[in-house]
Each structure stands twice: as structure tokens, then as C-alpha cells.
Write a structure and sequence with these properties.
Number of strands: 11
Order of helices and strands: EHEHEEEHEHEEHEHEHEH
Strand content: 15-25%
Distance between the termini: 14 Å
Strand order of the largest sheet: 5-4-3-2-1-9-10-11
Number of domains: 2
Radius of gyration: 17 Å
Oligomer: single chain
CATH topology of the largest domain: Rossmann fold
Largest sheet: 8 strands, mixed
CATH class of the largest domain: Alpha Beta
Helix content: 25-40%
CATH architecture of the largest domain: 3-Layer(aba) Sandwich
Number of helices: 8
């Protein structure tokens, strides 16, 4: 049985349902854990730290798909991504699509867009730019190609003095793929993207938060 020293877990579609409502069974289960629980999300830092406080887990958060990390609730954001690269890509996309920005003023390393255009065509347009276009299932994200949830997890693991392979990770969408590639045990909830399931060591029987509870039970943590 894998015995993790820490957990990294996505928020939207993993702890929440499609309406972005928190699963209270999952919240209760996460509060019981005796190891660090790091939220790893595509959301902006202000949202991520608020959710961490509400859930009652570690103040350590990975935000903006790895573009920002924070180690303390009132601490400084550590910005790992370059938003200027994303802004240049946004300018090009704006010539081809009617793009709609989401919480732009709160994001420090990336640009978040409504899912109202053809992402595959957009990726072709941005070929050659030093950015990537990510579909979190809730929004599109123009992100610095040098950052990911996986690289942010490695950054945090080093600060905590543990190895990334000592993490168990839980997620549901393509923005969790890099995190799955560096962790020691990978868990996809039942509603996860097929590409994530292909990397998973465990696929839970149930969707989102109910799947999180099943995963923690499987690991013997609750």
C-alpha cells in the first residue's frame, strides 16, 4: 500500500461538482488527514487561498495551473509564470475569435478565457508562441509553457523536504496531467478526462467529491 507523505488535489471537478459546489463529504474527509493537503488549481490565488481556508487544509496552494504558488495564507505569492507571454498570445487570438476574459485582474501569471471558441484551432494559431492553451473543463487558460502543476509540485516538495514521488495526487482534467507524471500515486475521479485516467494508478468508482472520499479510504488515510 502506498503511504503518502502529502496530498495534492485539484478543486474544480474533483472536490466540487460541475456547478462548482463543494462536496461536503470530501471536505470533512480532507480535514481528518494528518499529512499536508495542497490544493492545486487553475483558479486565481485569491480564490484558492479562500477555498483552502474554508476547507481547513494546508495554506500551501498551487494556483493558475502552476504559475503561482503560496506557502502561507497571508504570505506573498511566488510567481513562476510570465503573464506578458500570455498577453501577446491573447492579442493574436483576439484577431481570430471573440474572446472573453475571466477574472483577468486577479491573475498574475496567465490569462483565463471563456470556453466559447475552437481550442484546437486556437492551438494551431499559437503554434510557435512560448505558451500553451489548457482546457481545465471550466475555462481555457493561456499559460507560460515553462510552468505546470507538476513543476509547481516539485517546487513545493523541495521546500517541504520531501520527494514528489512521496505525494499522492487527485484530479480530473488535462491540467492535472503534469502533476500526475511527477507524483508517486495518481488518482483520477470517475468523471476525469480519459487522458488522465490513462496515467492513473486508481480510478474511483464515483465522481468528484465522492470519488475523493473513496480514494482516501483506499489509501487508508480515513
Amino acid at each position: 500500500m502506498f503511504e503518502p507523505k502529502a496530498i495534492a488535489i485539484d478543486i474544480d471537478g474533483t472536490i466540487t461538482d460541475r456547478r462548482r459546489a463543494l462536496n461536503l463529504r470530501a471536505v470533512e474527509a480532507l480535514r481528518k488527514l494528518k499529512i499536508p493537503v495542497i490544493l492545486a488549481t487553475g483558479n486565481a490565488p485569491c480564490f484558492a487561498k479562500a477555498v483552502a481556508k474554508v476547507i481547513g487544509v494546508s495554506d500551501i496552494v498551487i494556483c493558475e495551473n502552476g504559475g503561482v504558488v503560496r506557502f502561507e495564507y497571508d504570505g506573498e505569492d511566488i510567481i513562476l509564470g510570465d503573464k506578458e507571454k500570455c498577453m501577446k498570445a491573447l492579442e493574436v487570438l483576439g484577431k481570430h475569435f471573440s474572446v472573453e476574459l475571466l477574472d483577468f485582474e486577479y491573475r498574475k501569471s496567465e490569462v483565463c478565457l471563456r470556453r466559447n471558441f475552437d481550442i484546437n484551432r486556437a492551438r494551431e494559431i499559437l503554434r510557435g508562441f512560448d505558451v500553451k492553451l489548457i482546457d481545465s473543463g471550466f475555462a481555457y487558460h493561456i499559460s507560460d509553457s515553462k510552468v505546470s502543476k507538476g513543476k509547481a509540485l516539485e517546487f513545493i516538495a523541495d521546500r517541504l523536504g520531501i520527494f514528489p514521488k512521496e505525494f499522492a495526487v487527485l484530479g480530473d482534467s488535462e491540467n492535472d496531467i503534469e502533476m500526475f507524471r511527477v507524483a508517486g500515486f495518481r488518482i483520477a475521479v470517475a468523471n476525469a478526462d480519459i487522458r488522465l485516467k490513462e496515467l492513473a494508478d486508481l480510478i474511483t468508482p464515483s465522481n468528484d467529491g465522492d470519488g475523493v472520499v473513496e480514494a482516501l479510504e483506499f489509501l487508508g488515510l480515513i
